[in-house]
Design a protein that fits this description.
- The chain has about 50 residues and is of the alpha+beta class.
- The chain contains one helix and two strands; from the N terminus they run H-E-E.
- Helices cover about 45% and strands about 20% of the residues.
- It is elongated, with a radius of gyration of 15 Å.
- The chain has one domain.
Length: about 50
Amino acid sequence: MKKRMSLQDKAEAALNKAVRGVIERHKKSGRPLPVWKNGKTVYISPSALK
């Protein structure tokens, strides 16, 4: 029997899918990925992305 996903679970799954897509696009295009860390914007090189 399948367990029904709550609205929160669906939202988290959609967000995770979107983030994976953004990371893949940045890896393919060779652009650094900006992230928020310790109150500052930090750029992660494409080679350092998972």
